[in-house]
Amino acid sequence: MVPFCWRELRSLRGSEVIQGLGLGFCGGAEMLFQMDGLAYTSASISAFLTQAYCILLPLYHFARIRTVPGMRDLLAIFMVVSGIVILANVDWRTFRIGRGELETLIGAVFFTFQILWLERPAFRPNRTRLVSTTMFLSMGMVFGLAAFCTRPDRMNYATAIDSFPKLFLTLLLVFFCTLLAFNLMNHCQPAITSTEAGIVYTTEPLFAAVFALFLPAQLSGLAHIDYANEQFLANRCIRRGAHFTS
Questions:
Q1: Which of 38, 50, 146, 208 has the fewest beta carbons closer than 10 A?
Q2: 185 pLDDT more than 90
Q3: Which pLDDT tens digit goes with each residue over 2-15?
Q4: pLDDT for 135
């Protein structure tokens, strides 16, 4: 981010630093808990529990101002939860709250705080680029502290970037999924309520399902691995729906 805003860094305001640090701490903690939780639960369960923030946000507002969410918001939340259950293919007979599930839920709580922190009216005049720069710096501090405390083998860092496919895929993640995504989030989310933002963010699994129809084969070819595209089949969706109602 520094090349995009280095001229403005000298005029960094205190409120921009506070907002960036809050966003970075919540975002960094959310990612750490979610990634560690993935080692102890399935990806589908993680995807399902990560969306818990869409329920936590209206519960927070109800506890704070004692106002029940509108019918539109309640209907949207119900549709989101139902859709996530179907997409995640959760097996309720084997579902339990273990270490992985608990860490994923804790990560969802931190993401809830991140959404609420971004909504604060006091931060409206802040400049997005400077806030995002501070946020990414504080995220790096969180990850650096985690790396120092866990003391991984130094070769792990070299292994992460020891080939062109790894570097290229990392750059894609950094540019599109991190720099672009978080800057858009920091700039656009304050224009709507946090409850609405939480519902909008839950469209992530829908986009993932669509991208899975054509992206895996393209990326796996670059990485020299065999990972086929998913297929859209109506009968498979029906069977999944029957599975959840049984």
A1: 208
A2: yes
A3: 888 888 998 999 99
A4: 97
> What is the tens place of the pLDDT at every residue in 103-156?
999 999 999 999 999 999 999 999 999 999 999 999 999 999 998 898 878 888
Q: Which of 190, 195, 200, 191 is nearest to 61 (CA)?
A: 195
CA-to-CA distance for 123 and 120, rounded, in angstroms? 6
Task: State which H helix or E strand residue 219 sits in.
Answer: helix 215-223
**pLDDT above 90: residue 190:** yes
Find the domain containing 41 and state its range.
14-211
Distance from C-alpha of 199 to C-alpha of 78, rounded to nearest angstrom = 10
Cβ within 8 Å of residue 35, ≥6 positions away: none
Please indicate, yes or no, if residue 187 is contained in any of the structural domains. yes
User: What value, to the nearest 5°, has the Cα angle with vertex 170 and ends 166 and 174?
Assistant: 175
The count of structural domains within the chain is: 1
Q: In angstroms, rounded to a whole number, what is the distance separating the alpha carbons of residues 69 and 62? A: 7
Residue 49 lies in a domain: yes
Q: What is the pLDDT at residue 192? A: 92
Does residue 131 lie within any of the structural domains?
A: yes
Specify the pTM.
Answer: 0.83
What CA–CA distances, in Å, run from 160 to 10, 44, 217, 223, 245?
34, 25, 21, 13, 43
